[in-house]
Amino acid sequence: MNTRRLILLFAFLLPVSISSCDNAAKVTYSKEKVEQSVIELCKKEYKLDVEAEIKGSTLGVYIPIEGLVDAELKLDQSAGEKIEDVALSIHRVTMSTDKPLKFYVLTARDTKTMGAEFVLTGFVYDVVRVRLLDISRGEYHKRILRDFRFNPIMAGQSKIEELFNALNEDSPLAQNIKPIFYPIYTIGEKGSQKIEIVGIDSKEISAQESLFYVKTKEHYAPLPGFDVYKALFPQGFDNEYLILINIAMFPDPVKEIVSKYFYSGTEIRQRDLKKTFDQYNDIGYIGIDGLPKRDLDERWFLSQQIARRIKMVFAEDKRLKERFTVQASDGAIDNKIFRLSFSVASNELSDKNDEIIFSEILKLAGWVFHRYSFEDFEGIELIDTRPGGKKVFLSKHDLERFRRNKLKISAILPE
Amino acid sequence: MDILTLRRFKMYLMMHKIKFIITFVVTALLILAVWGLSSLESFYRHLTLAQMPITLLLSGVHAGIFVFMYMIFLRGGFTRIKQTTIKGQKVNVHWNDVIGIDEAKEEAWEVVQLIKDRTRLLKIGGRILRGLLMVGPPGCGKTYLAKAIATEAGIPFISMSGSEFTEIFVGVGASRVRKLFKRARDLAYGYGASIVFIDELDAIGRARSFSFMGGGQETNSTQNQLLVEMDGLKDKDFDVIVIGATNAAEGILDQALLRPGRFDRKIYIDRPSLEGREKVFEYYIKKVKYDKNIDLGRLARKAVYKSPAEIDNIIKEAALIATRNKRDTVSYVDLSEAMERIDMGMKHKKQMTKEERKMVAFHEAGHLVTTYILHPTDDVFKASIISRKESLGAVYRQPREELYTRNKEALLADIKVSLGGYVAEKIHTGTTSSGVADDFKKAMGTASSMVWKLGMSDAGYIGDYTTLAGSAQQPTSFLSQALTEKLNSETDKILKKCLKEVDDLLKKEWQIVERFVKELLEKEELEYDEIEEIFKEYGKTHFSKPA
């Protein structure tokens, strides 16, 4: 090829290359428009209306679905397809944006069956890795946190609103609990009481229980002889309640109601309900609006993933499945220490049971940390929650030694 | 835009049709690729771009494997040849560069004029030249002359060797001929004319053979196609001139090729004459640094029958020798050594005994003295007792000028020179060595030819008796036993007579022989000047045959 032809070729390829490079550098979904992009993509591609919000490095997406659960309380097939569509939109946006997102949370809620929701929580880096075939699809699915449940907050809030309506309408259902709502049902004329909810704060305190701090304004007409209370409880006075809901107790999930005011002997006294409410930890991360309440972090995500994978390990391995049943498994993180509590029952009495259970869980945890190259932790604590169950702590270093078969389980387990 | 420019543009489009299509497709694909990439989301775009180098590499490897397999299994290996097309102006061999073949040049110049004046020729109804055949020994400048024609005529030049057409598969050669002529016609369309030069024409131009086994079919079909293409040229109003070159005898070529309208003009290019050789030496020696005192005329005389290519080779070899001897310029000695090396091979000294060396020295001195005094046409340029190839020594002789026939005296002198070594050995020691084998073979061959073929015996036998003798083709001999004996007896007489003359000469000039033996044993090699000097000492001149 002579020089002239080379120059021509170069002159042609140069603008093409520059144009390609310029295009290559551009991101499709800019960091300023991530939420908007997800909303538009779902609308444009799948005709789905979603809401989106970013908290720190966590992208939350909420989609209300009519008929999320079927008559048998299982995930409806068409609803499942819509969830997949939204998830795909989330993947596309998170992979092609310059916003440094780490997690995404997709919440789908049933608009008919109150509290029924499906939550997908994933690590964006896992999405990229599965696209690059760095991890298998099977492994990717194990890494996603999937929760198909009744949200105790949603269910509880609905029940509370129902309860206050029943009180205001003087329904027979409310007759038995009226004395709890002190003082208006003690000092007011029958039928004159009205309670107006002015604020509800809630917390998930376990998988089934939720605690509500309810602020109200109350109205009543005093009974004859109780006019003196008008000074203390004027019309529209502020009141508060703490209500504990356990969704496992449906259809009557109200486990406990505590009012701010109470009569003790000769005087009316009051409780600091706000302080009591604040003392409880909120384990839930999905708010009433279906979007994440806080930014997620890797430690929490891994603790939850390992806890879920414990169940998978004992369910998938034929040898383990025949011998063990995981009754409960939970993960938490406390000052850079992973706490895995579990209850694994065995149908075979053997001295080796603990060795097998602890060994499998440690292997799993070590493998997960290794695959994520995660080192920002100090150790791991395994707690067998069964009566008389053992408790084991391993430093990060020892866990790695165990993973490399340089530390035996017999040397780890207490006698 | 004049008609010729338009034609050239059209020709360019026609000739580069495939290239244009490929360029268009590649450009379209490139644009589509860029467009496609732009429409991808950035993650997938990055992914695609990141994978591109390895994808390209793998594609290249796959394509390479495919091409390799295709060429090996379907096209008979990587033997497809490339036609070399060069524009006339770029051939860059000018008329003055062709030297030493003046007569051929004159004929070729006429061809150039015919090409240049073809329009005028057409006007008066003359026939445009179609084919030109150059016949001559190898290395005499046939290709060079063809290139010079292209340069002077200013038309494109396509060069191919006849052997490049031949293939194991029938039809491949013919297809190559078609492609070659199609290209030539395209070029001629654009430039008014073009030259197709087929070197080694005999590879495809041999007289066609027909075998029931199918042998030679490929060559036949290739030649048939060549004939068709050369005929086809008549239908066009532009010229494709086919120049063929061969060093095979004209009779070897198929008659159909030589008929008018095909290779209708022939130029015989022979080895250069003395004057031509001198010019060739002058031309090539300028390409190296050389001693200005070199007598080029003497070199030219020494290089009788040498072609320009051989002279070029001699000078290149001399430059190598000069470099090896750490000299900055090429001297006469280097040229002389180069000539010997090419003609006689490299020196390699064999470990001979003193007696053997002496015997070789007497043998070569015998040849030397006989040649100098008795040979009417040849000069002695060198005598050596250094072994080369199979010979233990040599006397290097050349005709003083190109001779195309040899008379009876010259042939007798050749026999005497051959016998000179034998006689000298015999006079010196009373015995002879095996070193005479080759000499006897030559002497016997010459004497036999003189009697059997050339009618040079004293007994008066006229005619070529070898045609009557038995051979592989003609098992029956038509010669009587008596005649055969007589002819052989005449041969023997010639040899004996020559032997006696040489014996008389050497005995008479034994002093000179001994002097040369002494010089040879001392110096191992004697150059022309030294030999001349010694003979002058003894008052001898060339061919001072005793009366």
What does this structure look like?
The complex is a heterodimer of chains A (415) and B (547). In chain A, the strands form four sheets. Chain A has a five-stranded mixed β-sheet, with helices on both faces. A four-stranded antiparallel β-sheet of chain A has the order 6-7-8-9. In chain A, helix 9 (298-316) packs across helix 11. The mean pLDDT of chain A is 89. By secondary structure, chain A is an alpha+beta fold. Chain A is built from 13 helices and 15 strands. Helix content of chain A is 37%, strand content 27%. Chain B has four domains: 3-78, no CATH class; 84-268, P-loop containing nucleotide triphosphate hydrolases (Rossmann fold); 274-344, Helicase, Ruva Protein, domain 3 (Orthogonal Bundle), CATH 1.10.8.60; 354-537, Peptidase M41 (Methane Monooxygenase Hydroxylase, Chain G, domain 1, Up-down Bundle). Chain B is 57% helix and 9% strand. Chain B has 21 helices and nine strands. In chain B, the strands form two sheets. A six-stranded mixed β-sheet of chain B has the order 1-3-4-5-2-6. In chain B, helix 16 packs antiparallel against helix 17 (408-429), helix 16 (354-374) packs across helix 20 and helix 17 runs antiparallel to helix 18 (437-452). The model of chain B has no long low-confidence stretch (mean pLDDT 81). The A-B interface holds A 12, 16, 19-20, 23-24, 26-29, 92, 95-97, 128, 131-132 and B 27, 30-31, 34, 37-38, 41-47, 49.
- Largest sheet, strands/sense/barrel of chain A: 5 strands, mixed
Structural class of chain A: alpha+beta
**What class, by secondary structure content of chain B?**
alpha/beta
N-end to C-end Cα span of chain A = 81 Å
Number of helices of chain A: 13
Provide the gyration radius of chain A in Å. 28 Å
Spans of chain A of 5+ residues with little confidence (pLDDT < 50)? Answer: none
* CATH superfamily descriptor of the largest domain in chain B: P-loop containing nucleotide triphosphate hydrolases
- Identify the strand order in the major beta sheet of chain B: 1-3-4-5-2-6
Number of domains of chain A: 3
Number of strands of chain B: 9
List segments of chain B where confidence is low: pLDDT < 50 over at least 5 consecutive residues.
none
> Which oligomerization state do the chains in this entry correspond to?
heterodimer
Order of helices and strands of chain A: HHEEHEEHHEHHEEEEEEHHHEEHEEHH
Helix-strand pattern of chain B: HHHEHHHEHEHEHHEHEHHHHHEEHHHHEH
Averaged pLDDT of chain A: 89
